[in-house]
Amino acid sequence: MIKNKFFKTFLKLNATNEITSVLFVFCLLFIPHLLQAQTIDFNKIDLNEQSPNNETINNAELLTPEAVQRSIDGAISFLKQRQSNDGSWKEYPGYEPGTTSLCTLALLSAGLDKNDPTIAKALKYLRQFTAEMQNQTYPVSIQTMVFCLADPQTDQARIRENVDWLVSRQFRTNNVFNGGWAYFGIHQQYDRVDNSNSQFAILALYEAERIGISVDPTVWKTAENYWLKMQNEDGSWGYRASIQNLQTGNSGEGTGSMTCAGIAGLVICSGIRAKGGAAFEKESGEIQCCQDFDDSISERIDKGLNWLASHFSVQSNPGAVANSNVNIFYYLYGLERVGRLTANRFIGQNDWYREGAESLLRRKGTLSQFWNAQNDLKNNNAVSTAFALLFLSKGRWPVLVSKYKYGTNDSWNAHPNDLAHLTRHIEKNWGMNLIWQVIDSEKATVDDLIQTPILVINGTESPIPDDPNQKRRQVQALRGYLEQGGFIYAEALDQDQSFETGFLELMKEVLPEEGNELHLIAADHPIWSAEKIVPVDQQRPIYGIDYGCRTSVVYVPKVSLNNQEEPPSVFDVRPSLSCLWEIAKLVERHEPYPESVEHQISAALDIGINIFSYATNREMKFKEEIPLSLSDELADQKNYRNKIFAAILNQGNSSSCAPRAIPNLMKAIQNQLGIPTQTFVSKIRANSKELFDYPILFMHGRNTFSFSKEEQENLRHYLDRGGFLFANSICASSTFSTAFADEMQKIYPEESFQMQNVPLDDPVFSNEFGGFSIKNLEIQKAVRRSGQKIRSELIESPPELKGIQKDGRWIVLFSPYDISCALEKSGAIECSGYSQKSAFQLAVNVLLYAIEHL
After folding, report:
1. Cα dist. 223→234, 270, 482 in Å?
2. Which among 185, 246, 433, 536 counts the fewest CB atoms within 10 Å?
3. Which of 772, 760, 821, 765 is nearest to 792 (CA)?
4. Is the backbone of residue 770 left (phi > 0), alpha (psi -120 to 50) or beta?
């Protein structure tokens, strides 16, 4: 019946209509799919599900989320199979505790927990062995890491015992070996100290401190000096210092694995004991921010990174014995740690995780579950697989935030530990592993920026470059980042207004349209209560720009912006949030701060976690889940033949918001309903001749807008010739709704074409065209009760659409409630609109109605 009705309608249309002529071939193939879509179970629909036929095997897409997850799952399965009945792994006879600890550490890093039977058996086995029984640095260190990750409360006494053993085995000599570790501890000759054993001891003590077991500060200072003395002139580290160089140091020919050990050792030791760029002065009782700090360690770390960059490889361990497959896996485990601890996505020009993961996937192959260490299918594969699994699992940890590096000095990094401390605090609260990174503004493209959900720009000087061309690239990149759903957090760190003046100017160029001005964030905004209730006495003026589906720019000034038209004049004398994050003590080693200082730090961390929770909705993505390039993602999507296709009407302002909404809708229709769609959605201006190439136009926005006379005339001509326009107001913006109604009245001033409510019994709300029978839909509303966190409530309500009819069909349909942000899954908690399920149902019905009536 539907097929006959469709063709009757089609034959009535003017054969010269540009839109219908484009659709003729498409209609022949679309109708069978439409007939198949009569009954739809929404519970089986996932807007994020991939089509089963989408998997490709070309080199550019080898590193897909599915491929990485399959490799991780395969490695987990292999290690489980190789576990013995007593809970151990017996790859190396006589070294079962160490091998078992390594395999268990890999499985824990891959997501297994203490309740998993494999982990439970391994823990039972490992708890039989004390540090004295093992009496070796490697197994005691890895066992300590396992206990810290698996069940630190149950094993707290064992961790403390192991920490004491490791501390007691640190060499204290009057030569370069002072501060290092050997295989069997201080009972060996000091010339047996090596960088590999020393690395694992440091890692164990680091994990112990992260769960609250303190280590004597002299241990870290002595270890730091050890790593400094072991570094070679070229920046590398070798395995062990020569007995001939007892005083001068250096550690032999550099290798990739040992250089990774040295870099990580310096980062950990210096980071744990460093004062950083802020401090509390007990004598004066004041917090000092933006202080000078010793940067000499950073210079040594950079020297090591430069060596690693110039010798970079993921095919072999640089500088190591040729064809040593064992070393490559050990090296990659160290490479992952360096990239993560130094907050670098790139080492030199190399994206270390993507390149390393792709190399591992190629090395293993698609049929194998394990990595073959020595071309021997029987021996040592559990160890090589454990190291590979550690790289894949830990290296893919989601990036929470990136710091924006700008300028010619370190003003962008006045508090070098602020994001490290805040990220660690959020990790504890969210119960997930997260990392932070640094992004260089001079090199950053939109593709680079979209790898991070939050971009932090702060400092003491203007972030705008002097070079006009660089400034133009910066503005374009930041604009593209926000259009793709990015979030900017900025803060002025001192009372010099250079940063503030520059940042405000930058935002005016990035978001120049009316409605994108900074405004004071209200007391009921989620950043005050998304997760933590911030005490009133610790709240401070915070400003924002509402762009897209949420407040996308948050700015914390050092002064109160009382009037946007005049220079601010009221200074906030409190320390910046960045400063308070910098001095936060996440591990208690020394005496606590005074209660008043702790109160400020606690509130600053709460504001930080609220802002970051608001920005991410706790929906973190592994690295490989984020497209490496927007152009790569769209490269194969521009085939329009025999598919539903549409365009987004670009009216400037916020039309670029929610860029993934319509592609997500099209993808879900194709993958879940079996209807061919074009997932690439072009943007097009209303005055373009290409308007007539698209049967359906989507439109959304948040701010006011207006069409030119030419655009109004062209859009009317498009609608009169058979086109269809479907619009919705982002976050139920009354400003956009009013502007849309005004523009439609200008396009169709006749009384017979006025916007009207769509009756609830209209076919568009029925399943007549293969969609859903809609009686009620879920609308999200933000609710905040006094003293409680803000939360979202779903309220059922009849669907609400307005439209313009011509010749008995709707040619324009408009939803005053948000649909796009729901389809994009980026709507903030305060964004009023339909739930994701309801938005999909309504959008599908409108789309199928439009196709039926073209």
Report:
1. 21, 9, 43
2. 536
3. 821
4. left
Q: What is the mean pLDDT of each run of 10 residues along the chain (854 residues)?
A: 34 36 34 37 42 37 82 96 95 89 97 96 97 94 98 96 96 86 72 90 96 92 94 93 65 92 95 76 90 86 96 91 68 96 94 94 87 63 94 95 93 93 94 94 93 95 94 95 93 87 95 89 88 89 90 85 46 83 78 90 96 91 79 48 77 72 85 78 88 91 91 95 94 92 95 92 93 93 67 88 94 95 79 90 93 86
Mark 581-613 as b/e (b = at least 16 C-beta within 10 Å): bbbbeeeeeeeebeeebeebbbbbbbbbbbbbb
Residue 758 is given by DSSP the state P
Q: Write the burial class of residue 188 (CB in 10 Å: 0-12 exposed, 13-18 middle, 19+ buried).
A: middle
Helix/strand/coil for 804: strand
- Residue 668: what residue type? A
Angle, helices 595-616 vs 418-430, to 10°: value is: 70
Read off the DSSP letter of residue 644: B
Instruction: Give Dmax over CA atoms of the chain in angstroms.
Output: 98
CA nearest neighbour of 629 among 480, 482, 489, 509: 480
Taking a C-beta distance cutoff of 8 angstroms, is the pair 826, 550 a contact?
A: yes
Residue type (1 letter), 242:
S
From the number of C-beta atoms within 10 Å of its C-beta (0-12, 13-18, 19+), residue 134 rates as: buried
Q: Are 150 and 202 in contact (CB under 8 A)?
A: no
Identify whether the C-beta of residue 599 lies closer than 8 Å to the C-beta of residue 538.
Answer: yes
Report which DSSP code applies to 438. Answer: E
Phi, psi (5° rounding) for residue 811? -105, -20
Query: Which residue do the tokens 């198949």 mark?
Result: 36
Give every CB contact of residue 612 below 8 A, 6+ residues apart in sequence. 400, 401, 422, 426, 454
Three-class DSSP labels, 239-279: CCCCHHHCCCCCCCCCCHHHHHHHHHHHHHHHHHHCCCCCE
Q: Backbone phi, then psi, for 351, in 5-degree steps?
A: -80, 90
- Complete edge-to-edge strand list for the sheet that includes strand 550-556: 435-440, 399-405, 454-459, 487-492, 550-556, 543-547, 519-520
Distance CA 691, CA 683 (A): 10
In angstroms, what CA-CA distances link 280 with 288, 290, 583, 591? Answer: 6, 12, 7, 12
For 739-744, the CB contacts below 8 A with 24+ separation are 739/701, 739/703, 739/704, 739/705, 739/706, 740/699, 740/701, 740/814, 741/802, 741/814, 742/706, 743/705, 743/706, 743/707, 743/712, 744/804, 744/812, 744/814
* Of residues 399, 419, 429, the one with CA closest to residue 531: 429
Which H, E and C letters describe 383-429, residue by residue? HHHHHHHHHHHHHCCCEEEEEEECCCCCHHHCCCCHHHHHHHHHHHH
CA 137 to chain centre: 36
